[in-house]
Request: fold
Amino acid sequence: MVRSARLSANFNSQPPKPDFTTMERKVRVRFAPSPTGPLHIGGVRTALYNYLFARQNGGDMILRIEDTDSNRFVPGAEDYINEALGWLGIGIDEGVREGGAYGPYKQSERRGIYREHVRMLLDAGKAYIAFDTPEELEKARASKPNFQYDASTRLGMRNSLSLPAEEVKRLIDEGHQYVVRFLIEPGRDVEVNDLIRGKVTINSSILDDKVLYKSADDLPTYHLANIVDDHLMEVSHVIRGEEWLPSAPLHVLLYEAFGWTDTMPAFVHLPLLLKPDGKGKLSKRDGDRLGFPVFPLEWHDPKSGDISSGYRETGYLPQAVVNFLALLGWNPGDDTEIMSMDELIRRFSLDHCSKAGARFAFEKCKWFNHEYVMAMSGTELAGYFKPIMLAHGVNPADFSDEYIAAALEMVKGRVNLLPELWDQARFFFAAPEEYAEKDIRKRWKAETPALMEKLIEIIQNLPSMASKEAEEVVLGWITDNGYHMGNVMNAFRLAVVGECKGPHMFDISELMGRDETIRRIRLAIDRIPQPAE
Ligand code: GLU
Reply:
């Protein structure tokens, strides 16, 4: 179902609240990854939607690094995020590298801010200190099925609500580790207004008293840091993956506890990315199983040394990946498929985002890539092709730019991924070393060498190598002599290309020129073994 985010009728049972979607407030969005590994393709989609929304509304796009979980920190992950977003053209206005008026943009550098906010909640009686050790928590869980640290159990635990004040002070002074928990009042309906999903209501009794801060590393947990930063950074819309939806009621309660309800951002939880086949959420294993990357760039795991493939290295163009991802959860309202970043910015709207999960049909990404390759000129493609030539030991400087561009122009229609340009165009840059076995068997007859000698003579005397003219003369010669058209033309092709496929034969010979065409036919006569009589 398509829902209009601008229809306040969706929410009219609410007390009046500023409708941020009508631009009363400057649009400020953030992409807030945790540097716990390579950015997953689902994270890229989240970043992209934030970017499209920001650009469309003349807003700001923030990149905030949420690195408060020190146990899960992975070196290199932050650089990877920056490089991936850069490759895709997802621009950042404020962030660790870009700077900005709301910094620092890395949570581990904001400890003082979080400490102060934890203190605010404690002073207001909205949070409390808990000393329970892991063993004690384990025991509590074992003693009661579905144990939850909440209003029904907290007085039986060791915390500042159950212990006398002097005891609390003593424990802290003696250096005992503690956490700060959020005091959740039970029995309240908590409403989350999501611009895609509408109103989601849950009862606060199902929430536990979430840990907001740990003295052990003097760091807040995700929930506190996320809310405090969204508030201080004046974020207007929180656009993130569906997996964060269950946290949203808690976040609403935190805004309330701080007294920030009036400036609470609008929530937008994007639909899940689903497996290309079967049921459930897209996972890395699906990529391994079906052979597609789940990461934008190749990732070298610093611990295991494992390498995971990336869209860039596999030969996708960033425009194709962006276009593909944009349509996983959003549609433009008609059947337009090919859209540049600028067009996506113009057409994007939350109204056309769906609630239902989006199937990760990776074959479609290949199709997009094919379309973008097709739309590029040979000269543009040469920029991607030259490194591929070098990797195959061919020096691009040995050929003119015009030659390379014309060759790519001829083969681009047969290509999905960039490395396939080499498979299709390699013969333009070196005479075949080998000739396809099955084509030899089919097309290289006992009389072929003699016929090819005659063909050389015809080509030698062609008034022009221009495709049309050459074709007319050569086909005329074949017909006039009653030769077998298929055999002659395929032997010609086998000699020049090395196999019986490729672009139009006379386009090839025009580009290669008379000398090279003749040289290759000679080579083939010398090299292709005569069939046994
Ligand atoms: N740090 C969270 C993540 O890794 C952020 C979720 C959010 O956008 O609130 O995705």
The pocket of glutamic acid is lined by residues 32-34, 66, 226, 240, 244 (CB under 6 Å). The chain is about 40% helix and 10% strand. The first helix runs from residue 41 to 56.
